Amino acid sequence: MTKNNIQLSSDQVAIKHREYVDFFRHSSPYINAHRGKTLVLMLDGEAIASDNFANIVHDIALLNSLGVRLVLVHGARPQIESRLQEKQLQTRLHHHLRVTDEAALSCVKEAVGSLRTDIEAKLSMGVANSPMQGARLRVCGGNFVAGKPLGVVDGVDYCHTGEVRRVDHQAIERQLDEGQIVLLSNLGYSPTGEVFNLAVEDVATQTAVALQADKLICFGANDGVTNQQGERHSELLVKAAERLLGRYLDGLSDSEAPHTELSRQLAAITKACKAGVERGHLISYLNDGALLLELFTREGSGTMVIQESYEQVRQASIEDVGGILEIIQPLESAGALVRRSRELLETEIGRFTVVERDGAVIGCAALYGFEDGSAELACVAVNPEYRGGHRGDQLLQAIEDSAREQQLERLFVLTTRTAHWFQERGFAEVELSALPAAKQSLYNLQRNSKVFLKVLK
Ligand SMILES: CC(C)(COP(=O)(O)OP(=O)(O)OC[C@H]1O[C@@H](n2cnc3c(N)ncnc32)[C@H](O)[C@@H]1OP(=O)(O)O)[C@@H](O)C(=O)NCCC(=O)NCCS
User: Fold this and answer.
1) Tens digits of residue pLDDT in 57-110
2) Helix and strand totals (H; E) in the chain
3) Is the pTM of this model over 0.85?
4) Which of 156, 217, 255, 422 could bridge to 94 as Cys pair (CB 3.0-4.6 Å)?
């Protein structure tokens, strides 16, 4: 125990331990959900220059050790800017995009090369007593991104300012298969041997699309997108994100690129999502732990942009235990459901049906068959945020179908507070004696539940 802990009372230590165990258990469904998934993380030069970057690197190391496949795409805008200033070079902006002439290109190469070295060094750090201890990350890079010139627009030659032509996703995938972190920059190379200064958002989007990544995560100065009252949108459908973007772009001509950090990132994410990337996230590089909160907690830390929601009713598996417990534990504490330990739930998981929405369990129900041809419907619960959307009905339907398949003819349920919900769905109150003998002997008199029965046709 550390020196600090010695000053805590045993009660405080017990609370800390409880919190730790709860946190770990609540994270487990997400850990399973993210393992083997491909994430593209976009960090512009501001994010890398921030004091919090060291913490972001630790979180990246943690994700890598949990089996998440990671591609980091870094930009270098402020670093390029300061090099240009040092050399007193004036560059032209056209439609908010920098024209990269020969002199500017040498600043771009210097800035990107130097940043890359710093990032690789940070990712290599395995300092004792830090979260990186023993992490031993392997980072690789290369000529994975091909660029082409933007060319001449309105008579202005953009010179070495370019756009992504192609991303060699197969080569990147091979590195990811080896457990390596792939580090890409805002530079692209052409078959003619030229170097192009690309927009980091373009590289990140095209890489995420080429890899059909599970997520594109952009680090910005804000905690995602807020509404007019300043409240954070934790989730936005792609269509809503596009509407918002439309407002940011109002007044810009077609050839103009979005030029605030938020609008550039929102544009990148909506584009990626429309091209098949499942989710986009906008999180803050200033907020310590934002990446972990966004990935491992329900409420997240930024804004997640999603395709139309994906929901299904299916048989539960062992990975769902954490999610089911999250739903039923508050109801157990409130006395609405009978208490079940994690161990019991694990052994009985095969009896459960769940409603899954975007990878998280939001509803559950269980079926226990008896030898006399009856079955108990138990543990019917829907996450309070999602009630009133007929998910209870869907679960009941799935359980009834499953009971019929097992030739079970009567479905009963013991309830203390949901009598009417069942009555409205064809259940009728019966005496305790209508229960199979095995269940009668287990009946908890103290709970004084009512017994309802539905005969399955
Ligand atoms: C019961 C429960 C599963 C219903 O889930 P749901 O997805 O909201 O169900 P549906 O959308 O299909 O049905 C909603 C309807 O049920 C009603 N309802 C919800 N809880 C009810 C209750 N305890 N008693 C009576 N009716 C109830 C709602 O008012 C709504 O009716 P309305 O459309 O007329 O307003 C959910 O409310 C829940 O998890 N409750 C707590 C757990 C519980 O009590 N489980 C049963 C013990 S076995």
Assistant:
1) 999 999 999 999 999 999 999 999 999 999 999 888 888 789 999 999 999 999
2) 16, 23
3) no
4) 156
